[in-house]
Write a structure and sequence with these properties.
single chain; 233 residues; mainly alpha; two-stranded parallel ribbon; disordered C terminus
Length: 233
Amino acid sequence: MSKWYAKLFHFLGFLECMYALEIYHRYTGILPITYGGKWKYLTYINLNVKALCFSLFVLDDVLGYLCRSAPSLQGMKDSVCKFKSVFYTTVALPASMMVFVMFWSLFLIDRELVYPKSFDQHFPSWANHLWHSTILTVLLEAACIKHPYPSKTTSLIITNTGGLLYLVWILWVEKVGGVVIYPFLAQLHGFEFVLFVLTEFAFIQLLFNFGKLLNHLSGGTTNHKLETTKKAT
């Protein structure tokens, strides 16, 4: 993907993320507020993760343009570039794929587990797809623009820590707030729950590896400066 098209893609991706969040707030505003608010839902967290990710992409593009006339900003641009690649490869890409696969898998098995039919009278179907199906922008980024990945150990720590924190968070919400976010989890006990958690972490790693492979096979542009810095260290 040429630099011009990449910048346009990042800007449009940013607008899509902002629109998805605005629609989410508009339609979910009618729902009663319970413990944890919107932040207990993985869908909402992922929408914000995507928004932050594309904000970093746009910021990096803007700094790249400003550095032409203000070389003193190069250090800031390098830091933003490194952080956005780490954030994208270890958090945004795996999380977006996770939301898409998990939501639609459970939806097809029994939609009452994740998106009850009663929601249809409050949320239009296109809004549901906007929140749960629009991972295309995230995948296109991986397919068209190469991002240097951190070390295997670092990637493993960041990705799995994110999954662990969310697991602890939803268990806390259930225990303290009495809110069961995902009804199917309440049906799992003892060994079943442990097996589910281990399977989920294995699945997260599988999605991470898929994203890494997709990015590796990409014929897109690479941030050579960052790659050079990484190799030098």
